[in-house]
Amino acid sequence: MNRVVLFRTTARILMGPGSVKQLGQEVSLLKGKKVLIVTDQGIIQAGILKPAQEALEKAGIQYQVFDGVEPDPRYEIVLKCANVLANENADLVVGFGGGSPIDIAKTVAVMATNDGPITRYFGIDLIPKAGLPTIMVPTTAGTGSEVTPIAILSDEGEKLKKGIVSSYLFPSVALLDPELTLDLPPQITAATGMDALIHAIEAYTSVNATDITDMLAFQAMEILYHAIRTAYANGQNLEARSKMMEGSLLAGMAFANAGVAAVHAFAYPIGAEFHIPHGVANTLMLPHVMRFNLMGDVEKFGDMAEAFGFATEHLDDLTAAETTVEAIERLAEDLRVPKHLAEFGIKESHLPSLAEGVMKVTRLLGNNPRTIILEDAIQIYKSAL
Hints:
The protein is 50% helix and 12% strand.
């Protein structure tokens, strides 16, 4: 490590089966009197929120539920949620669900103390002051948003996902209970688990990687790659679910500091325009972006094969790197994640405009181990058709 680096993460992290029962205690430690729980209809209908509600009721804490979060939420959802927050006079926000509710919760908390519109905060370090205290309770092992200073929102006008990056978005508490993930359907387990693995892969190969983020990302890759098939095949396996949540957490810590890169940049336009779930969009693009990136850091791409459990001591760096990509392709196939953009109605005629969308995501392309130009972006999309 030959440069000055900064490492940040969520200040307080609780993890383990049944830990959601401590939600009331955590709210009390933060002096919360009235809680707004931000979630979605799927969580409500599945009954997953009940343990959190029971924990708050047991602690005698008032709460209100906002369940209007949508997949890949538009930034307009923040305004709707903020109105509920203001009307209820809540002083603490709990994000409960996947990445979408958590990102909305993080954003609403800072908008409570900062003037709008929210669009002025797209970018890096543009939020002037801290928001309300927040507790994030993920119900998937995927986004890692509970330990990142990032919120991703959809801009339908530009058909693009945009990021708000600020240290004020770090939650006050991350509470990770793997029991909340036991009933996740296999396809969601696959998509969110691959998303977590991709966070680790991109953090590990980011040009901003450090010894600390490499340690976290490598450990995350080892854990996730070896646990995801079991979690997918047997969702009630608590050990596999715990490993997935641990791996997602470590990957989140890594990419919160090293950043993600071109895989996410390619996923954003297709996710925003064709409504492809984020984890699926990332997985679709992963092997194609990895093959393009190989020569940017052959040694690190080869190291990943070791994290996946392949013997690499007798392989040259390039062969080991190619083994890494082949392992990823086999994993996605085993998890039955869609393989082609055409499955979502994307045609070759769409590629130039999609590629132009990629080139707008400069925040992520700047982390990529290999420079990408517009012609490269078109070809990478073409390889994924």
